[in-house]
Design goal:
The protein has two domains: about 110 residues, Rieske Iron-sulfur Protein; about 190 residues, Naphthalene 1,2-dioxygenase Alpha Subunit, Chain A, domain 1. The protein is about 20% helix and about 30% strand. The strands form three sheets. Strands 11, 12, 13, 14, 15, 16, 17 and 18 form an eight-stranded antiparallel sheet that branches. Strands 1-10-9-4-3-2 form a six-stranded antiparallel sheet, with no helix packed on it.
Length: about 375
């Protein structure tokens, strides 16, 4: 008992510090096994490479021969950034990515297929290969997995491409100074509304924990929630000040996506809101989000009141989330954080799953 207490006390004193290098690398290793959103698809031209960062690794994204390609953003020759290069056609290989420094060109699998300076009697070195990664396009985003065998498939968001629903625009927020699990937990937390989002999705006259049930389903943590919310543009356009009973299904795609299916009790009006978070570094995250609705199908996809409300909610969350330490989630046994049942059950189950996957690490 004494040893456990000392360890917990020590961890408590460390919680404001930068995590150890071992903890950071453990986090990166665990997160490599998942698909991560890294860029809006319309930001990647057909003929120009773009540099991005994922888990503190620089990547170059490009389109070669009609497919999205992701590679390490370093030429094997003298380590120049390939994202400064250009797409060109190489005989027998189609479109390739050419390094801007000496013109070495790489095919989609990362192999160097042309070296302009190579003597006629020499072959391209077998080691002239740049690591390449799995890349895919879905929901208007470019997704990358740094492991050849992803633990889960790409996420699926309901209602996004269904004919009876109208999809809203893809949105991107400035980078948060927070880890990706922290950003997801802020969206998942269903009891902070009265304190952080008073008047929007929270009412301090109703601070009680909502009714919720939590279960695992494939790669998803699914939470069914019945709660009281103020009337807002997600629920209706009536401007009725009366609080509404709202039924939500919140689905977390472990570890980095979340979506909400929202319906006021007694209404057929359904709103889907989804978020996908990119772990740029252990303490930096980029959030993309979108929406879909089964009402006002004859109106523009962009709903100003709804979009402004979402912007406000995200900014209110950002201030709180960026204040949280440590960035990496501490294991439950450290008692650095004290989640409470039943109010925090969704957060407890989310973190429990992350611990099983090695994403919750020691400081």
């Amino acid at each position: 008992m004494g040893t456990a207490t000392k360890t917990s006390d020590s961890a408590m004193h460390m919680h404001l510090r930068r995590p150890s290098e071992d903890a950071i690398q453990s986090y990166y290793t665990a997160m490599r096994r998942f698909w991560h959103p890294v860029l809006a698809a319309d930001e990647l031209p057909n003929d120009t490479p773009i540099g991005v960062e994922l888990l503190e690794e620089r990547l170059v994204l490009t389109r070669l021969n009609g497919a999205v390609v992701a590679m390490q953003d370093l030429c094997r020759h003298f380590q120049a950034q390939l994202s400064l290069g250009e797409v060109r056609t190489v005989a027998g290989h189609g479109q390739c990515l050419m390094c801007p420094y000496h013109g070495w060109s790489y095919s989609a699998d990362g192999r160097c297929v042309e070296i302009p300076q190579l003597a006629a009697d020499r072959q391209i070195p077998a080691d002239a290969v740049v690591p390449s990664y799995l890349a895919a396009e879905r929901y208007g985003l470019i997704w990358v997995c740094l492991d050849d065998n992803p633990l889960f498939e790409l996420p699926i968001f309901p209602h996004v491409n269904e004919p009876d629903f109208l999809a809203g625009p893809l949105r991107k927020y400035p980078t948060w100074k927070a880890s990706t699990p922290r950003a997801i937990m802020a969206a998942l937390d269903d009891t902070h509304g009265p304190w952080v989002h008073e008047g929007l999705v929270g009412d301090r006259n109703h601070p009680e924990s909502p009714e919720h049930k939590v279960r695992r389903d494939g790669r998803n943590l699914v939470i069914n929630i019945r709660m009281v919310q103020p009337d807002n543009p997600t629920i209706s356009e009536n401007g009725d000040p009366t609080a509404k009973i709202v039924n939500l299904t919140t689905t977390v795609g472990i570890p980095n996506t979340i979506h909400f299916t929202i319906r006021a009790e007694g209404s057929e009006r359904i709103t889907l809101i989804w978020q996908a978070v990119c772990p740029i570094r252990y303490n930096e995250s980029l959030t993309f989000w979108g929406s879909s609705r089964n009402y006002d199908l004859d109106k523009p996809a962009y709903n100003d009141k709804f979009e402004r409300m979402q912007d406000t909610l995200r900014e209110q969350d950002r201030v709180i989330v960026e204040s949280q330490r440590p960035w990496l989630l501490p294991p439950f046994w450290t008692k650095i954080e004290l989640p409470l049942r039943p109010a925090d059950l969704p957060l407890i189950e989310y973190q429990r799953w992350l611990e099983e996957l090695g994403i919750s690490t020691m400081l």
